[in-house]
Structure formats: structure tokens, C-alpha cells
């Protein structure tokens, strides 16, 4: 890796002191819902309220002098009820009290929600009555996600989500200033990498710069009187517009040659050729048939299904808008999104398995999809997990090579010859130990593809015909390895090899190998894993830079 | 007979015994990893086994009791249901379950003999199975947790099960039927080995 000459010093949010979140966060985290509910209620009561107010303050103006008659139905017409019973003052007081309580609650929650970054951990304290104090060790960080929903972007805010090993162990900071979130992400990763803090002088300079930025980002232009208000408002609006129009991936962050992008036509075409499209066709066929034959009950079952599939397709396409994956100093950054944007950074040495797969209909176009196993991101948040483990939604073989190069930079040189044979090849080419012919008894289509190679500290597993798969397991992070054989495999003199990694979408397995080959692979993998784990330093990637 | 301090069974002991941090926050290793090419790999491997080690033959009793109880209840329920409601298939199913259970019990000594483990320089190899054979190698540095569990029958026989937990759920290595003192010795030894070879996740 090349070393950029200067790195900005550790930012003010990571200085070891306690900090608060973005002042707009209560609004973004629930205040908006409250306002919406309040607005909805008022809008519904508006006509009556206006009418009543007219009566109250200008009697005789429109309808002369009669008090509104109240039917006694509070649920139907509460406003009239209040007026007729002379409770206007109390009602206004109650409304004011509710609003004040809610605002106070949000404000207190915001005051009490603080975080700090020490040399070892990110700590978050929150809660009013029930205080909680979470602490995430920096060297256990498995990934950092920065999400910017549309609303948050309007306020120039972003959500930072730090995932640590262990299920539901995420620590999230919602919300921070947009620029601050990026800064803090960089700082966290840098501290995690084992780099020491810089001198205080350098920090102070950075302080001033970001503090000025935060000022502009944080305070909405409500300050009364000063002539600069218009200028400041203009500046803030200008900044928002700039942020909206800025590319999702900051060009300074990664060298352009390391960036893989996803053209929109390919994203759409690949989604339309995906497995879900077949379901959609089947469902539509059923709907048409049931319409023509008049069995209407089937519509009720299959129209929701069709809507589900369409929305899945849609989310797949929109999810890959402005998609980019880039190698930065502190890990692989995967970003996407048009209005709501999100990006995820996987620090070096956190990828436990990589899988490139290609299913039948994509074969003509040479498209592949790449997934990873990462600790702590797999079982919790089931919906998110699929997105977070998907590294490359669709790409060419060349993209796959580059992505693997980003995810496993150290092993790449050894892997290059294996990748071509691994992606599309068959038989014992390029160092693969392949399955014998009798494996066709249990894998009639894919037996030619089945193969394994151990190279450069990585186990390369090749399998699948309908769904071609190439799995790479960095042995430095393998958990255990197993060979197994049931009665059928034993009768054929075969054994399967399985490598256990942290939970995720990938289960690395070679379904059938000759007994001797399997034993050899088992021995080689077990030995190599121990050796690599002992010498693996990628989890403290900053140390070698510093020395 | 169980001694009182182990009478509470299912004693799960984290690898980092004595350190307060629970395993959910990750293994508490203050130093990141052993130094590259450090002394850990070249020390005299006193723990290495020359050959496969078997579990105690008394473990057969545990397995047999377990299957007798399980199969017995199933067979009884099926036969009772079959005779009361005159469902012929339930009766036949009960007989089939009973026969299968008997065959399985007859094979039990062989199956228990197939369970073996072997400590190598840097990892523990475990194997089991006669019909469905499985062999797993777990590097010492990958063990997150070593559990000792004891069921009632095991306790009466003075046996214990040793369970190894890694970050992968599919590792699923349990060494059943070890004499208690051997299980405890093995646990302490593996914990110590895991500490010296601890790597990040």
C-alpha cells in the first residue's frame, strides 16, 4: 500500500472527552413522528377549531350569537364539547403541558446521550431513568456504517453504526453532523489500527476547522437580528445543496483506480434476470390464468406475492444506484444510494469468507455477485444483514478480481492464477485438486467443477453448476475445519471438506473429494490456518505504517 | 458420586477464567496477539498426544440409558395409542421404533469407541461416527469457551462432557464421557493453550 504523505489529526470528537450528538437528533429520532401526529390531529380538527375561535373571539360576526350545540359525542366532535363545557383554558393548558413534557423529554434524552472515544474503546451513555453504558473495544470493531436517510440529509446529519463481534452488539450514534460522522469514522478506524494519537497542537488546528463546520451545520439560521443571518442562511442552504449533489464517494478518499462502480443499465438488467424475476413470471402467469378461469380466490393469495417480489426488485435496483466499492486506507468502503445514502467500511482483516457466485441466466453476460462473511453482522437485523454482506451486487469477472483484490490484498498475487480457473473453469487446472469421476453419482452436474486449492494462506473452494460458486477463506481467520462422510460417500471412496467460519451467508464446503485428497486438504488447511493465525497482523494494520 | 462443588451441573467456564468480562464483548486479550514468530510455537509440546485418545467406556451406559428412556417413552406412547384407538400404523411404528432403538443400542459400544480426540502441537483433532464419520480440527487459538456439562447419569458415573465453542456455530465439537478429573485437567490445559495462542477474531 502507498502511504499518503499527511493524514489529518484525530478529530475533536475522538479526543477522549464526552460529547453530545447532533442537536437535530431528537427531531430525527422521533420528534418528527410527534410533530406529524400533532399536525395530523390539528388538521383534522382545524375546521371546528377555526369555527369555534370565530365564535369565541368575534361573536355575532357570522352566525349571530348562538352557542354551538353539543351532541354529547366526545369522540365525534371534541372541540365543540370543550367549548360548550367551558373547558377551553384547560384544554389549551393540557396541550401545552403535553408539548412541554415531550420537548423536555427529548431534550433530556439528548442531554444524557453522550459518547466518548478513548484509546481503547468507544463508550456511549444514554437513558434518563434507566441509564445504559455501552462500550465497544476499538480493536474488536468489525465494521462501521454511516447512513444518511433523506430527512437526516436535509439537516446535514448522519447516523454512525459501529458493529463489534457478537450478535446485536452494535453501538450506534444517531445522529451526528454529516462531516463529523465521516471524521469520526476515520478516527475510530485509525485508533483501531493501532496508530498512536498525534500531538495536541495538530489536533487543535483540526478542532477549529471542524468546530466552524459543525457550527454552520448545527445551528439553524434562527438567530435574531444580525445582518449576517441572510448570508448564513444562504451559506447553510448552499452547503446542503452541495452535500446533496456531491458524489456519494468522496474522490479524495480512495485512489480512483481502486474504485469499482456499477452502471445503472447493468443493475436493472441483472435484477430482471435474477431468480426473483422467474418467481414474478410464475406469479403473473397464475394471476392471468385465475383471471381467465374466474377463480378469484387465487388473486388474493398471489397479488400480494407479486407486490412483494416487485418491491424486492425495486429495492435491489435502487440499492445499487450510485454504488461504489473502494479501497481506502482503513478498509474497504462500500457505498450506495441516491436520496438516502449509506456506506459501510470493513477494516482490513475482518473478512472471514468471500464468495463469488453466478447463476445460470447471468452466465451469458459474465456477471457475478460477491458476498462476504463478517463477524457480528449476520444474524441480528435480518433485513439489513443481506445488504451488508452483499459486497458487489453485480459485476464482471474483472470487477470480481478487483473486489477480491480489495478484500484480500495480501493474498492477491498468489490467487490471480487461481481466480480464472476458479470462476469458470473445470477439472484439475491451475492447482485445483478436483473431484474424481465417481463424484458424478452424488453431484451429476457439478462434479467437474468441484475442486479445492490452498494458496497464499487462502483456501479456494470451487463448486456448483447451476449456481457457480467460488469461495475464498482466509485461513488466518478460519475457526475449524472438518471432513465428513456418510454411507454413500464412503461407498464411493469420497469425503466432503467443510471449513467453519463465523456465521454468514457463506458456508464453505467442497461436497466431494477423493478420500486421500480430502485428508491431504484437511491436513494442509489445519496446518496453514495455525501458521497464518500466528503471523496475521492485519487487525492492527496501522502499526506497520507507523514504524 | 458428585462432589458438592460440581453438584451444580452445567458449569460453563469462560476461557478467560478469572476475568470479569463476559464473552459477549469479545475475548478480553489486552495484548493484541503473540509477537510474530514468537516463542509460542517453539515451546516443548508437552501436551501432544502420540495417538488417538478414547473416551471412557462407561460413557456407553450414559448413551444406552438416554436411548432407552427416549425410545421407551416413544414406543409406549405409540403402542398405547395403537391399542386404544385401534390404529394399526401406530402399533407398527412403535414396533419399528423399538427395533431401531435396539439395533442402535447394540451398536452403542462401537459408536462410543469411535469417539476420539488427539491434541496436536497447535490444534485439537476430534473424530466420531461409524456410519456418518466426521473429523474436525480446531486450532487452540480459536477456542472462545470450554464448557463442562454433566447430566444426571454422567454424574452418577463420574463422567463429564467437554464442549468447545468457537466463533463458528458449525464447529459443534463436544467430547462426551470423559472422567471428571480428566475433563477438568483437559479444560485447564486447553484454556491455557488458548490464551497463549489467542488471535483476534
UniProtKB/TrEMBL annotation, chain A:
One Pfam short name: bPH_2
InterPro entries from the UniProt entry: UCP026631, YdbS-like_PH
Domain YdbS-like PH per the UniProt entry, residue ranges: 110-185, 323-378, 447-520
Name of the protein in its database record: PH domain-containing protein
Chain ranges passing through the membrane: 27-45, 87-110, 267-289, 295-314
Keywords: Membrane, Transmembrane, Transmembrane helix
Organism: Agromyces bracchium
Domain of life: Bacteria
Automatic annotation (TrEMBL), chain B:
Keyword list, A-Z: Membrane, Transmembrane, Transmembrane helix
Bias (Pro residues): 25-35
Pfam family, one: bPH_2
Keyword Transcription regulation tagged: no
Region (Disordered): 1-44
InterPro entries linked to this entry: YdbS-like_PH (IPR005182)
Parts of the chain that traverse the membrane: 60-81, 87-107
Domain YdbS-like PH, first and last residues per copy: 113-190
Protein name from the UniProt record: PH domain-containing protein
Species this chain originates from: Agromyces bracchium
Lineage of source species: Bacteria, Bacillati, Actinomycetota, Actinomycetes, Micrococcales
